[in-house]
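== Item description ==
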Amino acid sequence: MTAARARVVHLVVALVATLALVLQTALVISGASVLDETEVPGLATRLVRLVSYFTIQSNVLVAVTAWQLARDPGRDGRWWRPVRLAALVGITVTGLVHFVLLRPLLDLEGASQAADTLLHLVVPVLALGAWAVAGPRPRTAWRTAAEAVLWPLAWLGYTVAVGVATGWYPYPFLDHREAGVGGVVAVSAGILVLFVVLFAAVIAVDRRLRPVPDADR
C-alpha cells in the first residue's frame, strides 16, 4: 500500500474514533446515564469517571496514534512503538471484553447505543483493519510488548485503588463486592493472559506480513 492510501485509511480511523469520543463525552456532560446506571453524580465526578474507563483510554490511544499516522503513515520512534502497540492490543481487548462480559448487561438505545457501538465495535474493527492493510510494519518485538503492557497494569492498579477508596468501579467484574476477591483476581488474570496472547499474535503477524506502507511515497 502506498503512503498516500495509508494516510486515507488512518484518517478514517482517526475521524471515527474522535467522533465516538466526542459523542460519549457529550452524553456524559449532559448527564445521560450511559456509563453507570446509578444516580447521576456531579459533572466533575462524571468526567473523572469517564476518563477512568479502559474503553475511553484505549479509544483515545487509537485516535491519537491514528491522527499522527494520517500525517506520517510511516511513523516510527523509540516510544512510538509501545504506544502504538498498546493502542492496537488495548482496543482489541476493549472489544472482546465488552462483547463477552458487558454487552449482555446493557440495554441502550438512541445516541447511547450509537456511542457504545462506535467505541466497542466499530473502532476496534477499523483499528485492526487499518493496521492489517496500512501498518506501519514492522514495528513490534517482545521488548515493545513488555513496555506496552505497563499501561493496562497501571490502569488496573489505579482502578482497584480508586474502587477501594471510593466504592466506585468502572466495570462490575472488578468490584469485589459483586464478584468476590477471588472472582476479581481470576478475571484480572484472564484478561492479562488475553493481553499476552494478543501481543504474541500481533508480533507474529507483524514479522510475517510484508512491510507497509511502501517506501515509495
Remarks:
- Residues 3-208 form one domain.
- The longest helix spans residues 176-208.
- The chain is about 75% helix and 0% strand.
- The chain has a mean pLDDT of 90.
